[in-house]
Amino acid sequence: MSNTGFILPYQSSSLQGDYGVKKLAPGDCPLVDIVALHGLNGHYELSWTHEKSNILWLRDLLPKAIPRARILTYGYDGNTHGRPQLSYQTIYDLSETFIAKLVMFRKATRTLKRPIIFIAHSLGGIILKSVCMHPVEHNSYN
Fold first, then answer.
1. What is each CA distance from 53 to 49, 60, 81, 138, in whole angstroms?
2. First vs last Cα of the chain: how many Å apart?
3. What is the pTM of this model?
């Protein structure tokens, strides 16, 4: 970490395991992917987990309601305060990384043509909007 408190691009973070596409439920012969993006200062699991019951509704409830959906969540560095390491990425950077990681995951699982339903909260919605606003840049990910 630099002396400013920011993670530099070449440095690692203990939270890096919390970033990227995570499969929460495989689905029963899935016809659709549901991808959740947390919000500002959020977490790929904790943002969707009820504090008292510890129920992660994306994993514990949604698959029962939509059994033919594969449930994914995406973690990214959206920290703006309260930690010694703050995000240095722009919205555009976050959207570029998100679409690249999602496409890589779907290529690896041979599911590029499967429809996607997005669930996005706060900053996650802004990241998703940025992906939609810059389709030319993201064309290589089709």
1. 8, 11, 27, 39
2. 35
3. 0.80
